[in-house]
Sequence to fold (170 residues):
Amino acid sequence: DSIAHKIKIVILGSSTVGKSSLMWRFHDGSFILNRTSTKGLSDITKVIQANDKNVSLNVWDTAGQERYRSINYLYIRQAGGAIIVFDVTNRETFKELEMWIKEFTDHCEPSAKKILVGNKIDLVDQRVVSQKEARDFAKKHSMAYLETSAKDDIDVARSFQTIAEKIVED
Ligand code: GTP
Ligand code: MG
Fold:
């Protein structure tokens, strides 16, 4: 079948939140427990169905480490949307969301969409950011909120589906 839309998204968030893990889980179902930190950019493309149409979704995985951040805006500018990720077991990554949201909204196209994802929900005993707190934060920023585990494959595809549909619907 033919491709109705070609869209690009970026995954943003602090180092170790699981951006690369989410992308690879989505792309080929793989998961590595000790993944090395991303230095350059890498991307995948996957065809999905959104609103009954074939959509080619190009996903760019960015580097969360501070010293690599300066190039992210080049990709943000070309993106139809972003998945902004934090780690529910790491409060610092939740605090840094304000910075990531600003980074995205300062450089993106006016029509670009964004959603919030809280990753690592499999680590139930280590959780420090509650679902309510994250949901309230997302609401304040007019973002949909989803919780994922790249490790256990919980709602990973659904997160990519959600951002794709928001972009296609527009
Ligand atoms: P940078 O590339 O440095 O920006 O980090 P990143 O956001 O890409 O994080 P990455 O995907 O490399 O994951 C960091 C670590 O967390 C890795 O050791 C992963 O195996 C682990 N990890 C990622 N997602 C999950 C998850 O859902 N659950 C658990 N338990 N561990 C996870
Ligand atoms: Mg990475």
Residues 19-20, 37-38, 61 surround magnesium ion (ligand 2) (CB under 6 Å). The chain is about 30% helix and 25% strand. Helices lie at 19-28, 72-76, 91-95, 97-107, 131-140, 156-169.
